[in-house]
Amino acid sequence: MEELYTRRLILRRWRASDLEDLHELLTDPQTAEGAGFIASRSMEESLVRLSGMINSSDAWAVTLKEDDTAAGWIRFRPDDILKNRRGFQVGYAIREDLRRQGYMQEALAAAMGYIFEDASSASVSARVKPDNAASVKVLMKNGFSLAGRLPGYETAGSAGEVLLFIRTRDDPLPKEDASMMAKQLSSLCDPSEGWLTCLCNAVAFIYDEMDMINWAGVYFLKEGKLYLGPFNGKPACSVIDLSRGVCAKSVRDRSTVVVPDVHQFEGHIACDSASASEIVIPLMLEGELLGVLDIDSPIRERFGEYEKTMLEGAAKVMTGFLKGYREERQ
Q: Which residue range is the domain that position 250 belongs to?
């Protein structure tokens, strides 16, 4: 088993020095529930499990490049369902504070490349509880397809139905469609339900759908200032003056502004100290600027041309919801 490197992670063998990091993972109830194992009740139990991982040739520690912290794991085992297809079953877990930031998707992509290219596997399967939407999303973005449901499957000492996902060596990764988010927003929101309802759902959808973002919301332009509207994330600035900040620049320029590193942007307004990059799209209705869509990420250079095109399409749909807002304002 080789060490694998991604942009933010290193996948390596487990070490004795990882005990405290692994114990934190093994004693977290949410991690145990999502990954389907019985939580450790003591450091001694975690030590036994660590010894098994150290002696195993199929378990990677998912570590952070910045400090070598063991923040999760990925493990491949021979698959009892796909045994005639040289198949493996994959299991994984990531620390709670790192979820929704694309870490597991990044780690699994690297591991899958190794399994198919270097380990000569023909297929990989995963079992996921039906209510584990985050894990389903990780698998689908890594090219897995739903193959069926397994009733009475035992996880963490109890039996229940799980979803069976499979990816074969020849399955292509899903192609990214920059217009998909706009299509999804159009089908998700019914303008007859009211502009505010639609806008709230649209912002929530963007926040839930996109990985590696920590804030998504709308600001309304009123009387020369920006006022906070529907958002997801930490509490934000309620009012923004048009003299500074990324949102203000988008209003002044009447165009999308992408900031790869907010710490290099003069006049940046730090509502969340964790934010590292930002994109702001103006909400234009028939030539009138009504506000902006603002998205923040905790990593630098999160927003490229693909994300810019995708979010501009989403903003166009959201602007359509604002017809009711403009009528009420008038």
A: 180-329
